Amino acid sequence: MMKHPEQYRGRQVVVLGLARSGVQVAKTLHRQGAIVTVNDKKDRDQCPEASELEALGISVLCGGHPDDLIHQGIELVVKNPGIPYSAPPVVKALELGIDVVTEVEVAYRLCAAPMIGITGSNGKTTTTTWIGSMLQNAGLNPIVAGNIGTPLCEAAEAARADNWMVVELSSFQLKGTQQFRPAIGVLLNVAETHLDYHGTMEDYVSSKAKLFANQTEADTAVINWDDPVCRELVPYIRAKLFPFSMTERLKAEGIYVEPPYLPQNSDSQPRTVVYRNAEGAVMEIIRVDEIGLPGRFNTENALAAIAACLAAGASPEQLVEPLCAFRGVEHRLEYVAVKEGVTYYNNSKATNSKATTMAIEALEAPIVLIAGGLDRGSDYMELVPVFRDKVKAVVALGETREKIARVAELAGLSDALLVDTGDSAAETLRTATLQAAGLAKPGDIVLLSPACASWDMFASYEERGRIFKEAVHTL
After folding, report:
1. Number of domains comprising the chain
2. Does the annotation list 124 as a binding residue?
3. DSSP 3-state of 90
4. 56 lies in which domain range?
5. From 48, 127, 159, 298, which residue has the greatest number of CB atoms within 10 Å?
6. Does 122 show up as a binding residue in the annotation?
7. What is residue 88's predicted lDDT score, i.e. its pLDDT?
8. Is 120 known to sit in a ligand binding site?
9. Higher-confidence residue: 355 or 192?
10. Are strands 272-276 and 254-258 parallel, antiparallel or unpaired?
11. What integer pLDDT is reported at residue 372 of this predicted model?
């Protein structure tokens, strides 16, 4: 029988994994009066946060998982989202009937503000940031927290009832929730990714669907009406539906594009974002070509953000200025520079094929693509059509470089260069950037959009993106 404590004072809690979320949840639980032990399998010299926590009176154990770490006296385990459920302390806790949750669950239980939770395979950070900007313009006191913005537990402790907590949520985080109930849940899309963690697509989808699991008719579920996996979840959602669509004129309340993006409609014709309210009245909000970020997938993100903000109480008129002014987020189709007539974009956040496809489709000029990274078992064949239609050359690096080059070959590209891993990851990416620059002509685009996670070479996609930008600026 699970027994997540309603109050943390005097309760023994184990936090698994330091990193950013572990440090913050440990501090929060300590402030709430819990008896906190933090455990990380890394050696002490790789845990610089340990001394800070110990100075607060928090016990920190590094260098492995002690056999007696988890016992009947422990009332809660809060794990870093990336730690697998096969980790020995997690397995033992579950065997003993101890709750194992992520920081999201703790933050939700402490938070006085209603939450807007945003998840999806692609577009989460852009949409989360955009919602924060729109709610700020509408005077609705947003706090953007979690993977971006203020650490989630810290924000939850400080939030008031008149705030809106705007939270980006991964499948890893959602899988570790129980009572979490956002007032507004936003599901952007679902693509095959993170199967090395989830094991199956079913587990990945069910983790995403936990966004809606505890919602009631008083809450709102914003879903992508064009995504078949999102549509399949509709019968299981009890909340009020607020769909958005790029391809359909919605008959009930929702946000859509007029005219829709359909094969018989030209992609170049003027389009407008339209809101149909609960009474059936239709209101034009903004022309698509006025939206601050280019590309159809960013229009889709904008539709989701509009729906969430309207559900939170903003008026359509209050959303127009931030829709026009928003210029995106670092590492998400981020403009870097123009060098000798070639434009460079950093899309390091693209860690799966779908994200890379969307970035390529958003750009008009011929593209020299830098791609490759951690090999999670994909063959990347879904990239063949977009390589054939939009990409003139590929520079491939990382563990998947031969797979990416094979896709380029099947797409008929004559220029597909493989970059061997050099003395350092940074030097390898600089070499790739130089080679891409050599393949590009004035008017072309060089795009870093790896379609892979970064961990074979870099600590994070952020590090990969920063090094690419440095390489571009020194060309």
Report:
1. 3
2. yes
3. helix
4. 12-101
5. 127
6. yes
7. 95
8. yes
9. 355
10. antiparallel
11. 97
